[in-house]
Write a structure and sequence with these properties.
heterodimer, A: 5 helices, globular, B: 167 residues, 6-stranded parallel beta sheet, two-stranded antiparallel sheet
Chain lengths: 140, 167
């Protein structure tokens, strides 16, 4: 009973994480140019890197999202998810340190502002990711 | 399988996913946008294009707004796609000025009054040709440029009349 409960909880976590990334990717695809402006607003990357990020990140999110959804290369996808989330969180922290009042760009045009709430959200996602990484060997 | 091999396998998978994302991203960008200058394009747009509430030179309008202009103000309707696409289907009373062939009809552009009410369209929402043409015309001093951003695809989806040449 306890094992079953644990298994279902992990399944739900996996689905939540996959939907977050798929939704995030689809929102970015609605306007990649807006996403470029969002990334540029962090004032960290040169234009060429911003364009590269715009080309790669939505597809990376989409692949990782679907990878999690269909349990394909689960460990690799979870690790990639973790790396991306850590990078996104570092960017938000840098923006906060710089005192920038910008949108995070996480969900394209439906993004929220960078700030403590965003960091807490990201930490929760990272935490869920770590749980899945820890138990994915047992469950899958 | 020992730990080193497992780590290697995971890293290999990560690399494959990354390469796949990069490849799909490149192909998608080239097909839909034609180039990788997202940032430059976005900045250019935001400096030239504004909404209805601000003073503007190029305005993005919906199909409903375009219809309203067509019915009440008889604008010059320009199809910015290439000649073949224009021949296959076009909006009635539109003329074809391909954005990529601007030099070939520059005399005609010069002959137009600068305050002519102009509606430009191309294929659809992702098509950049109407923006490219509008920006070129803006540089020639035109002051009343409107981009019907949903393009001919949006026009067709709303079942509005098109002139079609099946051949």
């Amino acid at each position: 009973m306890k094992i079953e409960l644990k298994k279902y909880s992990l399944e739900i976590l996996r689905l939540i994480l996959s939907f977050i990334f798929i939704l995030s990717a689809l929102e970015k695809f609605k306007s990649l140019e807006s996403f470029a402006l969002n990334v540029d607003a962090y004032q960290i990357f040169p234009a060429i890197v911003v364009n590269l990020i715009v080309v790669i990140i939505p597809w990376l999110e989409l692949f990782v999202g679907f990878g999690l959804l269909f349990k394909f290369k689960l460990r690799a996808n979870l690790l990639l998810y973790l790396i991306l989330m850590i990078c996104f969180t570092i960017l938000v922290v840098i923006a906060m340190i710089k005192g920038l009042d910008i949108e995070c760009g996480c969900f394209g045009e439906s993004s929220t502002k960078v700030g403590l709430v965003k960091i807490i959200e990201n930490m929760m996602i990272i935490f869920m990711n770590l749980i899945l990484l820890k138990f994915c060997k047992i469950t899958y | 399988m020992n730990t080193t091999s497992k780590v290697k396998a995971i890293l290999k998978d990560i690399l494959i996913i990354f390469i796949l994302a990069l490849s799909f991203g490149n192909v998608y960008t080239l097909i839909i946008y034609g180039d990788f200058n997202f940032l430059e394009r976005a900045k250019h747009k935001s400096s030239h294009i504004s909404n209805e509430n601000t003073p503007q030179k190029i305005k993005e309008i919906s199909i409903e707004q375009a219809l309203n202009l067509i019915q009440n103000h008889k604008p010059l309707i320009i199809d910015a796609r290439n000649e073949n696409e224009y021949q296959i289907s076009r909006i009635e009373n539109s003329i074809n000025l391909p954005a990529k062939n601007f030099e070939s009809y520059i005399d005609y552009i010069f002959s137009l009054p600068k305050d002519t009410l102009i509606i430009i369209y191309c294929e659809g929402i992702h098509c950049q040709l109407s923006h490219q043409l509008a920006e070129k015309m803006l540089n020639f001093g035109f002051t009343n440029l409107n981009i019907m951003y949903e393009g001919i695809e949006g026009w067709q989806q709303k079942n509005l009349p098109l002139i079609k040449n099946e051949n």
